Amino acid sequence: MQWDIVIGLEIHVQLATKTKIFSGSSTAYGAEPNTQANAVDLAMPGTLPVPNEQAFRYAVMFGLAVNAEIERRSVFERKNYFYPDLPKGYQTTQLERPIVGPGYVDIDLSNGESKRVRIHHAHLEEDAGKSLHEDFHGMTGVDLNRAGTPLIEVVTEPDMTNADEAVAFAKKLHSIVTSLGICDGDMSQGSMRFDVNISLKPKGEDELGTRTETKNLNSFRFMEQAIAHEVERQMDILEDGGSIVQETRLYNGDRDESRSMRTKEEANDYRYFPCPDLLPVEIDDSFIDEARNSLPELPDARKARFMEQYGLNDYDANLLASDSKLAAFFEAAAERGKDAKLASNWVQGEFSARLNAEEKSVAESPISGEQLGDLVVRIADNTISSAGAKKVFEALWTGENDNVDAIIDSQGLKQVSDTGALEAMVDEVLADMPDQVAQYQNEEDPKKRKKMLGGFMGPLMKASKGQGNPKLFNEILVKKLGG
Amino acid sequence: MHNKSVAELARDLDSGQVSSVELTRAFLDRIKQEDGKYNSFITVTDEQALADAKAADEQRAAGKATPWTGVPFAHKDIFCTDGVRTTCGSKMLENFVPPYDATVTANFCQAGAVCLGKTNMDEFAMGSSNENSYFGAVTNPWGLASGNKRVPGGSSGGSAAAVAGRLVPAATATDTGGSIRQPAALCGVTGLKPTYGRVSRYGMIAFASSLDQGGTIARTAEDNALMLNVMAGYDRKDSTSIDREVPDYTATLNEPLKGLKIGLPKEYFSDQLSPAMEEQVRNAVKEYEKLGATVKEVSLPNAKLAIAAYYVIAPAEASANLSRFDGVRYGYRCDDPKDLMDLYTRSRAEGFGNEVKRRILVGTYALSAGYFDAYYLKAQKVRRLIQQDFINAFKDVDVLMSPTTPSPAFIQGEKTSDPVTMYLEDVFTIAINLAGIPAMSVPAGFVDGLPVGLQIIGDYFSEARLLNAAHQFQQVTDFHQREPQ
What we know:
The complex is a heterodimer.
Chain A: E1 3-14, H1 53-65, E2 73-74, E3 77-80, E4 90-93, E5 103-108, E6 114-126, E7 130-132, E8 141-143, E9 150-156, H2 163-180, E10 192-202, E11 212-217, H3 220-239, E12 247-252, E13 257-263, E14 273-274, E15 281-282, H4 285-293, H5 299-310, H6 314-321, H7 324-337, H8 340-357, H9 369-380, H10 386-398, H11 404-410, H12 419-432, H13 434-442, H14 446-463, H15 470-481
Parallel strand pairs in A: 11-12
Antiparallel strand pairs in A: 1-9, 1-10, 2-15, 3-4, 3-14, 5-6, 6-9, 7-8, 10-11, 12-13
Chain B: H1 6-15, H2 20-38, E1 41-44, H3 46-61, E2 72-76, H4 103-111, E3 114-119, H5 157-164, E4 170-175, H6 181-187, E5 190-193, E6 213-218, H7 221-231, E7 261-265, H8 275-290, E8 294-298, H9 306-321, H10 340-351, H11 354-367, H12 373-396, E9 399-403, H13 419-423, H14 430-435, E10 439-447, E11 450-458, H15 463-476
Parallel strand pairs in B: 2-3, 7-8, 7-9
Antiparallel strand pairs in B: 1-3, 4-6, 5-6, 5-10, 9-11, 10-11
């Protein structure tokens, strides 16, 4: 049987405010447990929440970035449940009047098409603390540093039909919130966490099947795996004539396993009601206008500009534009290097590979976009070969020297482009290799001939001590060998 | 000395007739001697009080005195006091010492007042008789001579009894459904519940957040005004507090009442009220007429729905507010919990008293899926109707007057078996909290030797007018000066 896959996402985005949503405690990650929790965060008796204006500004910026309506009278509700890392015994969140109303995001698919994913709403809420089950010998440690960190929870419509689309959406959202500067985007620290709702229905059927929710996926890869895993699990059940239980599941990425966390019947009755400690928050035009005016360039606009301004193709523009830090790095390299295509190749090639290999972010890069631009200049004007360029890059990266021209000089990487000198070297090498010359000249297939040219390059580079311009060597060779 | 008001004590301190240390010692001694009868204090902070008194005397000597500098008073044990245990009348918080001050507490410290201790109360402010305190019932100083122990009312019964018993000239209090006015009435003292949002709730342990309001209990209206001067004002730590100028509440106490328009809500003079009580209240209203006020009957047609609406909204909010008492971070924790669920259930089962549990259950039920609309939402609609009744009434009159309670102080144990009978104690006070308006209870006579309270209700932010009306009444009557025997 053929199945349609239906996927909706709920995404928790930690807002990069300095302080918590309802208290003045710092939100910085990684402090000693419980050192960033004050009386309000600990839910000491009599303490009260005071809303953080910056969290509202960020939420409004997000709403504007996803083409959504902003709720002018935003209300907070209490969501009641007991858990040790939830100090008040309720989470302050939004239900009836979330700050961000319906909106949408367009994603690029691998087949080159674009698809619109609708956002149902996004609401502001407080994060819970963390329960630590290791190191406590049959007990649980509670760290409330995270308790009260502002979140927006973005809820999509069930518009995605496979893992690729879901991941593309997740990456796009990541790109939007980091470009806005409202989230640091660091998934390893839990700054973005995904819940995936999945259901299957017979192909072409209108009615949706029973869905499951897989919670708390904190990487794009786990998300992709979890979707594949859950689709297969549901498909197996349905094809065996079974039915899906509406439930919340946990996915273990390391083992590619999932287990039921709770079924619908076991679900809490959260007893939502408006939080009487917080008055409805009125958001006026000037607040929204101010947020609109503070919006930075968003990934879609940036991509269009990269295509227009730098002549990049769709793929390259998309890749470079989606990460605001990478985009800025590229722009610096392209502006300085005066060759955007070459800059794009180096940013996506050597530079990105090196970051990945060392698990570094763009911000942690030891070299600047300007330095890469200087390198691009020297490649473009044929001062160095691409092999030489790699050596310069290495020296820049390791901090051996921070000046491209100085490295070229000290390592003697400048190419010889004097045609007379190069021709002499070619003559010498061809004279030493009569068999190969004959073989070449007897070969009819142009492809094979081209390949055979490579056989002369090694000795030529050796003869030139690696400094001969390979492009010129090639031209001279072709001429001398007779086409 | 113990019969003097705050205003009089401040004058004595000012003239150097007495020092704050002397005053504080005298009141502390009195608490030691007399409070065995009343049990109005949970904690007495002798050492701290004497240290504060000494500091206050130095302040005064340095010429930096406020009207409160060196004046002894007490806090209801619902206001968090930095470094001093704050129990809220509950086993749950028997050993809880907050590392912070409530805004109200901080304001009194700032003013130089000397806190002698924390007064007894119904557990988490839930009760109308002060019989729900983990620290034992409070006994009303009135009626003891007859051999019967009577309730002081609740939940601020400790504050009212301490003031009536002359253990302190003034005490803070809170009012969610009548918890200032009803005990003030039953103990023959003067109490004021301000407009919701007038006094910061920060550090005041929450019962029902949308109804709770800190206020004042003292013998005279003037002392209530002096207290409110310290307590009222916007607090950025409480999002529901209101940013509005605070007048000097003593400045208008002596305004003449000529032309004051008084409304008598007919629903508050119903069969629930004993004829003897009604007579006292009507006599009081006659005094106002003598002072130049005019009187007319008005109607609050939805008043009869107030108790029902209140007992949905208040428990609903309480059920969430009290979830933080889970045995995890502070407060009572059961011995040897087997697992997390056992920790939760036993800590809460052992740490909370019956009335608190009853209200948590009621509130949880009212918010549950399938019941929310019928209970919570309906109650909120009723609340708006009640609010509208008052708004309409104040189009015609300046203040409303009624009895504060349907009957005088009852005997301990008399109403404990039936919670609903107990809830009816607040029949005249509860609608005021739902509307968020201010109201006072003023001593207005006696029935069988027990005090009767006159409730004066005003429009939003009309505290100055209420205090003025109460003060003028106290210039021509002496009910508030009578001392229990």
